[in-house]
Hints:
Blueprint: H1 2-70, H2 74-100, H3 104-118, H4 126-147
Helix pairs in contact: 1-2, 1-3, 1-4, 2-3, 3-4
Amino acid sequence: METALIAVVGTLLGVVATHWFQGRATERTAILARTEQLRQERIAAYSAFAGAIVDYRRSQNDRWFRAAQDAGSEEAEESRYASYRQRTATRQALFRVQLVCDDADTRQLAESAFEMTNCMHEATGEEDRAHRSHRAKEILDQFIAAAAPGVR
């Protein structure tokens, strides 16, 4: 009888231990899957934002040059509307960054890159435009450097 009781208790302990270890393994797997999914979402959001900023910067430069060459012309107006469309796309990409980024400094760099690019068309001359364009690129580079460790 004692032998049977020891066998039953041993079996029950084995079942409990197995259940506990399987639960922990399942929990770890879920955490790893969620972490990888978030990493992939961050990669997508950060690279989409960087691409949108590059396109917006190009659009803002084009807008400035066309307005400087022939303000009020059809080409200048078309370029202005194109910059509006690109600003909308870039702002949407910024929102995605803000949703997936948990580092306040990195989010601030993304916002600064957007703002610097957004005001490029207000440059008062070629030197000012070139400075603003270069500064927007520098801030984007800083954002990428700050964001990269979070996706490695």
